[in-house]
């Protein structure tokens, strides 16, 4: 199914119209299409994709297929790229622009592999390059498409303010500011730095870090004056967070099963299921990994299941065992969407034909001699945040609220 984004969706209108814009953070492994569709049902105003390496997105059709999928309900949407050259960031943005409402440059990821490749928070050491990347991207793609940057605060508040003011002069659409430095993995966020930036910039500022419930979102907004609040850990544990619910509701778990189940069906298979529904997810389904399906349920049920049940559920290894557990314990199973709903959630066929010209035009000649590009496959490992949930049942007093640092 061919797809072009809704041309009438302007992300900046959302900031103008809402008192608080509620945002799901870019999260490696986790802010993929099915989860974005889920949180959209629970008052999430804006979604980000996981961080995508711009060089592989530009050079590899396979990378584009693996890293980015979308559908009719997946809007408004920002695609986040990691890049350290103009041609890769602008080229990737141009490729993706028909299928999203904005792009974001990651200048906040503190992970070692990203820093070694001079990506993420390492970009803050070369602000002139960041300014140039924003300016050139803004000049290539017309508004209302947004160009934004996600950063971490610097060691001195005044330097953070100056960096943000310079980005504003480059016509950046909005900024996301994580309230910790690149070396500060855990601990309190610097709310005063967030407030200083908000007071000195006219563009929307999104605050990120340390928020675990809706009340804390409003408290952070009121203190800092930021227009939006971005949440990572809290929304993984509770996708209904933006509704004010304190824990994941059973309705949310049911919706997760429905979204995942239907996302594994092609149109042909959907028609077969309509005639003879199995309400099951095959062990090697189309368009869904067990890791994504199971990990999200582990997070959602952390405060719902008693400890012994959590230990059993967290160790399950197959779709069938997970579905059987949920049916036995909660009396729920996946349901088939009605035809009209199924079409809205079906993956679009994204056609990038003839959209590589910007990347090719901007690419330095020396780049033609490169034989490979960077590849980071987060699906090859479980990740620190999931592993923490598996081991935390041995110590109920552990606080894992700050462990998710995947995208800074």
From TrEMBL:
The organism's place on the tree of life at top rank: Eukaryota
Gene3D superfamilies: Aldolase class I (3.20.20.70)
Keyword annotations of the record: Flavoprotein, FMN, Oxidoreductase, tRNA processing
Record-linked Pfam families: Dus (PF01207)
CDD domains per UniProt: DUS_like_FMN
PANTHER family, per the entry: TRNA-DIHYDROURIDINE SYNTHASE, TRNA-DIHYDROURIDINE(20A_20B) SYNTHASE [NAD(P)+]-LIKE
Protein name: DUS-like FMN-binding domain-containing protein
Originating species: Psylliodes chrysocephalus
């Amino acid at each position: 199914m061919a797809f072009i984004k809704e041309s009438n969706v302007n992300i900046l209108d959302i900031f103008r119209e809402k008192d608080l814009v509620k945002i799901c953070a870019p999260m490696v492994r986790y802010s993929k299409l099915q989860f974005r569709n889920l949180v959209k049902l629970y008052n999430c105003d804006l979604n980000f994709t996981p961080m995508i390496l711009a060089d592989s997105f530009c050079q590899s059709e396979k990378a584009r297929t693996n890293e980015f999928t979308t559908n009719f309900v997946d809007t408004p949407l920002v695609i986040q790229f990691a890049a350290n050259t103009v041609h890769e960031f602008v080229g990737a943005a141009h490729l993706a622009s028909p299928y999203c409402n904005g792009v974001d440059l990651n200048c906040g990821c503190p992970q070692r592999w990203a820093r070694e490749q001079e990506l993420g928070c390492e970009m803050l050491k070369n602000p002139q390059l960041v300014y140039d990347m924003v300016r050139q991207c803004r000049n290539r793609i017309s508004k209302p498409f947004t160009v934004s940057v996600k950063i971490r605060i610097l060691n001195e508040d005044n330097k953070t303010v100056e960096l943000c003011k310079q980005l504003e002069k480059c016509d950046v659409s909005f900024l996301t500011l994580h309230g910790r430095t690149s070396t500060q993995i855990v601990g309190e966020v610097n709310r005063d730095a967030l407030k200083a930036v908000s007071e000195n910039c006219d563009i929307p500022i999104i605050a990120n870090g340390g928020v675990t419930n809706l009340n804390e979102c409003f408290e952070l907004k009121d203190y800092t004056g930021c227009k939006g609040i971005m949440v990572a850990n809290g929304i993984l544990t509770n996708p209904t967070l933006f509704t004010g619910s304190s824990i994941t509701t059973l309705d949310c778990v049911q919706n997760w099963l429905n979204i995942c189940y239907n996302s594994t069906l092609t149109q042909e298979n959907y028609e077969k299921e309509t005639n003879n529904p199995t309400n099951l997810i095959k062990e090697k389904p189309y368009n869904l990994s067990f890791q994504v399906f199971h990990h999200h349920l582990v997070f959602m049920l952390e405060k719902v299941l008693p400890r012994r049940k959590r230990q059993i559920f967290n160790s399950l290894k197959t779709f069938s065992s997970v579905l059987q557990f949920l049916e036995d314990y909660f009396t729920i199973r996946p349901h088939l969407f009605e035809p009209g709903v199924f079409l809205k959630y079906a993956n679009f066929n994204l056609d990038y034909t003839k959209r590589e010209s910007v990347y090719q035009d901007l690419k330095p000649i020396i780049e033609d001699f490169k034989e490979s590009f960077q590849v980071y496959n987060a699906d090859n490992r479980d990740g620190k945040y999931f592993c923490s949930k598996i081991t935390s049942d041995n110590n109920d007093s552990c606080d894992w609220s700050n462990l998710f640092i995947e995208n800074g």
